[in-house]
Write a structure and sequence with these properties.
The complex is a heterodimer of chains A (about 190) and B (about 45).
Chain A: H1 3-15, H2 21-40, E1 45-48, E2 57-60, H3 67-85, H4 87-107, H5 133-162, H6 167-190
Antiparallel strand pairs in A: 1-2
Helix pairs in contact in A: 1-2, 1-4, 1-5, 1-6, 2-4, 3-4, 5-6
Chain B: H1 11-31
The chains are: A mainly alpha (about 190), B mainly alpha (about 45).
Chain lengths: ~190, ~45
């Protein structure tokens, strides 16, 4: 899941309007951002399943995507954000970081560790919606649609209240959020494996 | 996020990178032009 995470962050912006959108978007992708270098140096790993393509993967991201690891990374992200922006925004951004783990829990096969490094070899978690790729893609699309709608509605309302910026910009941004989400989901689905 | 073990790009790599650029950089920049309440203005 990629696009769904961004859709969720857009929806959060509608209710937590002081949080910068770029920070919400970065927060929602933060676990994957950290996964990149850890994968590159061989600490975290993934294995494509024979069919390849959307969702056909086993991911052993045992630090960034373990339950406790994700919680720690969320607290750290929120703590750093709280320095310039205050406790409330820090808590919101930390929660958005952790939301990544919750959404991944729905789609991943049972490959998500509980403790960092899979300490104790505890049972791995994951509800496995990726086994039904159409359902998984529809879930992502629904999150994008709801998130971009909430963002668009809040942007238009805020712009009208302020009365300074043309409302057209809010319409454009709402469309951009939805369109970018669809493009990203399409790339995830259709770029050849 | 999915990656080839040989480092070549796949769909999720492309979508993740494009997503970061579009949402964090482009849309994040444009959104800053809307009249949202500013984060550094503490309440109270």
């Amino acid at each position: 899941m990629v696009a769904g995470h961004f859709g969720l962050a857009a929806g959060v912006k509608a209710t937590e309007q002081r949080a910068p959108l770029w920070a919400l978007m970065l927060a929602t992708a933060w676990l994957d951002v950290l996964f990149g270098p850890l994968f590159a140096i061989g600490i975290e790993d993934l294995r494509m399943l024979p069919r390849g393509g959307y969702g056909n993967v086993i991911i052993h991201a045992d630090y960034t995507h373990s339950l406790v690891g994700a919680a720690i990374l969320a607290v750290l992200f929120g703590a750093v954000a709280a320095i310039p922006w205050g406790t409330r925004i820090g808590v919101v951004l930390g929660a958005v970081v952790f939301s990544h783990w919750l959404l991944d829990l729905v789609v991943h096969r049972a490959d998500m560790a509980i403790l960092p490094g899979n300490l104790g070899d505890l049972p791995r978690l994951g509800f496995g919606l990726w086994r039904a790729p159409v359902a998984s893609a529809l879930l992502e699309l629904a999150i994008i649609a709801v998130g971009s709608y909430l963002y668009w509605r809040a942007a238009v309302t805020r712009t009208r209240e302020a009365g300074a910026t043309p409302v057209g910009r809010a319409h454009l941004l709402g469309a951009l959020v939805f369109g970018a989400g669809v493009v990203v989901l399409g790339l995830d689905l259709f770029v050849p494996a | 996020m999915q990656r080839h073990t040989n480092g070549a790009e796949r769909g999720s790599d492309v979508s993740f990178i494009v997503g970061l650029i579009l949402f964090v950089v482009v849309i994040g920049y444009l959104d800053a032009g809307l009249p949202w309440p500013r984060p550094w203005k503490r309440e109270g």
